[in-house]
Amino acid sequence: MRPAGIRRSPSAGGPQNAPVPSAADPARRPHPVRLVVTDDLARRRVTVLFRLVLAIPHLLWLGLFGIAAVMLSFVAWLAVLFEGRVPTTVHRFLASYVRYTVHLTAYLALAAGPYPAFTGGTPYPVDVEIDPPARQGRLAAGFRLVLMVPAALLSSVLAGSGAFGPFWGVGAAFLTGSLALVAGFLGWFAALARGRMPRGLRDAAAFAIGYGAQTSAYALLVTDRYPDATPGRVQPEPVLPRHPIAAAVRDDLVRPRLIVAFRGLLSIPHLLWLALWGVAALLAAVVAWVLALVLGRVPRVLHRFLAAFVRANVHLYAFLFVVGRPFPGFVGREGSYPVDVTIAPPGRQRRLGVLFRLVLLVPALLVVSAYWSVLLVVAVLGWFAALVTGRMPGGIRDLGVAALRYHAQASGYAFLLTSRYPDSSPALAGRPVAAAEAPPSPEPAA
Amino acid sequence: MTALRVAVAALLAIGWVALAWLLAGTVVPDDLRLPHVDVDRVFGRRLVDRAEHFERFLFVVWILSQVVLLATLGVYAKRGARFARESAAGPIGTGMLLGMIGLAIVWLVQLPFGLAALWWERRHGISEVGYFEWAFGGWFALGGEFVAICIGLLVVMALARWLGSWWWIPGALVFTAIVALVVFVSPYLTTGLEPTDDVALQRTYERFKRDQGVEGVPLRVEEVSGDTSQANAYAFGLGPSRRVVLWDTLLDGRFTNREVGVVMAHELGHQSSDHIAKGIGWFALFALPATFLLMVVTRWRGGMGEPAAVPVALFAIALFQLAGAPAQNVVSRRMEAEADWKALSTTRDPAAARGLFREFSVTSLGDPSPPTWAYLFLQTHPTLAQRVAMATAWAKANGR
Predict the structure, then answer these.
(1) Shared domain check, A399 and A305
(2) A243-301 pLDDT per residue, tens
(3) Are residues B146 and A330, on separate chains, in Cβ contact within 8 Å?
(4) Among the residues of A159-198, which ranges form H helices?
C-alpha cells in the first residue's frame, strides 16, 4: 500500500520515502518523548469561540508551574552533573510539566477539544508519553543550554517560543509566528463553522507541539535525547489521504561541503530564471483561469507548463535550503531531482471553486508563510550541519520536504493544477483515509 | 584546403593588425622623447623608499596569489569534472555549476591574499575597510560574477553545441556585444554618484568640456572617504550614459584646485578621445584569438559544448589573462598617456600636473618607478615618473 501524499518517483528504484536511514531506521530506539494523538477532531463551538478566555486560569497557573519547573530543572542539572541521572521525583515533576504544556498548547491551538487538567498527569487527546529517567551524559548536560539552541530555533517556528518555554510561557506562543499558531488561528474559524477541526491543521499543530515538547524535555533534562524533527512520528500512525500533488524523495542525505558552502550563490541563476519564468507562469495562470471557467478544466498544454514551473520551484528551493543534494535543472522535469513532486494530469474542476480561487487561497497562504519560516530554519540548521558533517540530518531534511510539499500543493491549487486544497499535515507517510471518511474524488479521470 | 586556411588566417591577421593600428592612434606626438626624471629629487628619497617598501609587499602577495590561483585552477581543470555528479541539470546547467564552483574555489583561495593586502593597506593608512566587511561585504558583487559566468557559459556552450568548433567567432562577437551593453548601462546602475555643489569646480569642468569639444558627460562625485584615503577619478559610460566621476577624497583639501583641474581634464580626455569605445574595440580584438585558443585547448575534453571542458576553460582563461596582461597594459598605458597629454593641453599647467603626480605618490604610496616586471604585468597607467616626465616634455614643447 502506497503512503498517501507521497508518490514513488518514476526513476526511483525503491520506496520513495524510505531512503532516510538516519531518521527512519527501525532499529533506532524510539524517542523517550513520544507524541500520542487520539483526538477525534470534533469540537464544541461554544468552547472554541471562548477558548482564549477559558484558558486564562491555565495561563496563570502555567506561570507558577513554570517557575517551579525552572527551579527544579536546575536541581536536575546538578544531579546529572554529579550523579549522571535525574532523581525520579524531580523527573516525574518535570515530565508532568512538559505534558501539561503539551495539553495546554494543544487546547489553545485547537489541536484538542477537552478542557485540560491542571496537573499534566492525566491522559489528553494530544499527549506525550515520557520514558522513566535514564542515565544522561554529563558533558552534554553541562552544555545543555548551548546545545539546545538549534532545537529551540526550530521549536520557535513550529510551536512558538512558549512550547519549549518554562522561560517564556505558553502565552508567548501566540505573540510569535509559528505553525501551531497559524493552524490554531485557521482552525478556530473552521471549527466554529463546522464543529470539527480540519485533520491537516490538527496534525500540523500536534506535530509542532510534539516537537516543542521534546525540546522542553531536552532543555529541562527530562531526557538527553535530542528532539527529532521527523514529521509524522506519532502514535497511532497518522491518516494521510491521497493528494494529486505528492512528494517523491530519493535523496541520500550526503551533501558535499563545497556546494553547501556556496549554495546561495549557486542558486542565483535559477532565481533569476524563475523570476522570468514566473512572469510567463502568471500570465499562463490567468489564461488557465479564464479557460477553466469556460471549459471546466485547464487545457493539458497549460497544465503541463504550470506543473513544470511548480516543480522547478520545488527543485530550486530544495537545493537552496539544503533539502536536496544536486544542482537542479532549469526546466522542472518530473523525476529529474531527488526531492521532487509528482503532479496528476488535469481533471475537471468546479467553476465556482475556480472563480473564487484567489479568495479560497488565503488560508493556504497563511500556512505557506508558516512553512516558509520552518523551511528557513531548516536551511540554516541544515547548512551548518552539512558544512560540518557533510550530511543533512534526516529529520530536518524530511521536515523540509514536508514544507516544500505544502508549498507545491498550494502553488498547484493557485495555478489551477488541482482543485484539491493543500493538506497541512507534515506527515510524509501514513495510513490512507478510511473509505467512510474519504472525501469525494477531487480529480475525475481526464 | 590547408592553403585556404592559411590564406584565411593571414587575412584575419592582417585585418587584426590593421584594426589594432587604427585603435592605437593617439594625439601624443610620435617623436616625443620623455626626459629622464630623478625620482629621488622629484619625489624625495624618503617617500620613494616608503612607496617601494609598501609596494614590495603587495607585489609578493600578487605573485603568490597568481601561483596559487594557477595551481588551484590547474588541479580543478584536472579533477573538477567530477563535480558534474552533483548536478541534476542538463549539460549547459552542469557547465554553469562547474563554472560557479570554479569561481567559488578561486574566491576561497584568493581570500587570504586579499586579506593580507588589506592588512598591509590598513597598516599604511591607505584603506579603512574592515576585514569582515571586505571579505563578506562584497557578496553582492560576487553574486554578480556568478551570474556573469553563467551567462558567459550559457552563450559559449549553447553556441558550441549548435555550431561545433566554429563557436568562437560568434562567441567573441556576442561577448563584445555584452561588454558594450554592460559599459552602456553601468552608469545608470551605479548608485551614490552625486552632482558637485562646488560652483567653481563645475565652471572649470564646463570650460574644459568646451576646450575638448565634449558635449553631455555630466560631472559626478562619489563618496568613498569611509573606505579609503586614496584619491582617484574615472570616466565611464558610452554615448548618452557617459560620466566623469571624482572620488570625494580628491576634494578633501589635500589637492589644490589646479591639481583637481588636471584630473578632470584627464578624465575628459578619455571621453573626448573615445577611449571607452576604443576599449570595447580592443576587447573585441583580444576576444577573437582568446576564444579561438579556448576552442583549441578544450577540444581534449570534448569541446566547450561539454560540461567537462569548463574547468579546463577556466584554467585557460586564467593563463590567457596573465599572459595577455602585458599587451593589455600597453594599450591601457597608451590611452592614459593620451589623456595626460590632453589634460596638459587643456589646463596648460604642467606644474599642477607634476604636483598632482607627486601627491598621488604620497596618498596612494605608489612607487614612482616600479620594477620592470611589475610595470609589464600590473601597471595600467604610465609610472608616476613617466607622467612627471610627460609634463616636463609638454612644458618644453610649449615653451613653459
Answers:
(1) yes
(2) 999 999 999 999 999 999 999 999 999 999 999 999 999 999 999 999 999 999 999 99
(3) no
(4) 179-194
Provide Rg for chain A, Cα atoms: 22
- For residue A261, list chain B residues with Cβ-Cβ distance below 8 A: 104
Angle at A309 between CA A304 and CA A315, to 5 degrees: 120
Query: Quick one: angle between helices B309-347 and B275-297, nearest 10?
Result: 160
Q: Do B89 and A325 touch (CB under 8 A)?
A: no
Spatial distance between the Cα atoms of A390 and B86, rounded to a whole number of angstroms: 14
Residue from A376, A429, A368, A370 nearest A398 by CA = A429
Question: Total structural domains in chain A?
Answer: 2
CB contact under 8 A, B88 and A337: yes
Closest approach of B90 to chain A, Cα-based (Å):
6
Distance from CA of A106 to the nearest CA of B (A): 42
A143 inside domain: yes
User: C-alpha cell of B267?
Assistant: 578624465
**Claim to verify: residue A266 and residue A223 sit in the same structural domain:** no
Of B88, B104, B142, the CB nearest to A327: B88
CB contact under 8 A, B146 and A269: yes
Q: Which amino acid is at A257?
A: R
Beta strand B219-222 with A234-235: parallel, antiparallel or unpaired?
Answer: unpaired
Report the half-sphere exposure of B347 (CA within 13 A, side-chain side).
Answer: 30
Show the domain range for A270: 245-414
CA distance B224 to chain A (A): 27
Same domain, A161 and A278: no
Interface test with B, best of A249, A327, A330, A392 (most B CBs within 10 A): A327
Find out whether the peptide bond into A236 is cis, omega within 30 degrees of 0.
Answer: yes
Which of A265, A330, A338 minimises the CB distance to B146? Answer: A265
As a whole number of Å, the end-to-end CA separation of chain A is 24
Residue A260 and residue A204 share a domain: no
Task: State the Cα–Cα distance between residues B196 and A166, nearest whole angstrom.
Answer: 60
- Within 10 angstroms of residue A90's Cβ, the number of other Cβ atoms is 18
> CA-CA distance, B388 to B48, in Å (whole number)?
14
- Please report the ipTM that was assigned to this predicted complex: 0.79
Which residues of chain A neighbour B158 with C-beta distances below 8 Å? none
Chain A residue with minimum CA distance to B102: A258
Same domain, A97 and A141: yes
Q: Is residue A131 a contact partner of residue A223, using CB atoms and an 8 Å limit?
A: yes
For B246-286, the DSSP string reads: EEGGGGSSSS-HHHHHHHHHHHHHHHHTTHHHHHHHHHHHH
Q: From the CA atom positions of chain B, what is the Rg in Å?
A: 23
Q: How high is the mean pLDDT in each 10-residue block of chain A (446 residues)? A: 38 32 56 93 93 91 92 94 94 95 93 92 93 93 92 90 47 61 94 95 94 93 94 84 91 93 93 96 96 95 97 97 95 94 94 94 94 95 96 94 96 96 90 55 38
A195 falls within a domain: yes
CB A408 within 8 A of CB A310: yes
Residue A24 lies in a domain: no
Residues of B with CB under 8 A from a CB of A: 83, 85-90, 93-94, 96-97, 100-101, 104-105, 139, 142-143, 146-147, 150
Residue A43 lies in a domain: yes
Distance from A4 to chain B by nearest Cα, in Å? 26
Cα A6 to Cα A16, A339, A342, A431, distances in angstroms: 8, 11, 8, 11
pTM (2 d.p.) = 0.84
Q: Which residue has the cell 502514535?
A: A235
